[in-house]
Amino acid sequence: MNRIKIEIKWAVIFSAMVLLWMLLEKWSGLHGKYIDYHLYLTNLFAIPAIIIMVWALKDKKRRYYSGQMNYKQGLISGIIISVLIALISPLTQWITTYGITPEFFPNVIKRSVELNYFESTVEAEANFNFANYAKQGLIGALVMGIVTTATAMIFIRSKNK
């Protein structure tokens, strides 16, 4: 457990940041009045997500590896963080769906039908629901976390001189 203490810490920090982002989206109207912009602006989440992952990897390098971390060590750490975030993501999606913004799915279903993204409410409901978003969040956290780690470690790893 001590070996992955740093990864657990950063997975919790990341998950808290996800919930904060959802609050910001709701408060800014992206889940209601400005829902048409949600599809585009929600992608800005990648910025703090990448920053948090880089901070996590640098923290692991500094605290656990005493400033000397190779690519493989960082990749393993990032994969562990990504798996932990993925495992927590259904909970963060549940909190978002039922606590922070229960109006999001009804709003996005209604609007997507109005804009003819879907032909019927039933079709839109099949796409916009807790179960679907929980699965997408779990898979997305895992894939994006590993891709971010693989890229970031090119720059974070210790270089042998």
List the helices and strands and how they pair.
Layout: H1 5-27, H2 35-41, H3 46-63, H4 71-100, H5 104-114, H6 121-127, H7 130-156
Helix pairs in contact: 1-3, 1-4, 3-4, 3-7, 4-7
Description:
This protein has 161 residues and is mainly alpha-helical. The chain has one domain. 76% of the residues lie in helices and 0% in strands. The protein is built from seven helices and no strands. It is elongated and about 60 Å long. The model has no long low-confidence stretch (mean pLDDT 96).
Brief summary of the model shown:
This protein is mostly helical and 161 residues long. The chain contains seven helices and no strands.
Q: What is the count of structural domains?
A: 1
Distance between the termini: 33 Å
What are the low-pLDDT stretches, counting only 5+ consecutive residues below 50?
none
Helical fraction equals: over 70%
**E-strand count:** 0
Kindly list the characteristics that best describe this protein:
161 residues; mainly alpha; 76% helix; elongated
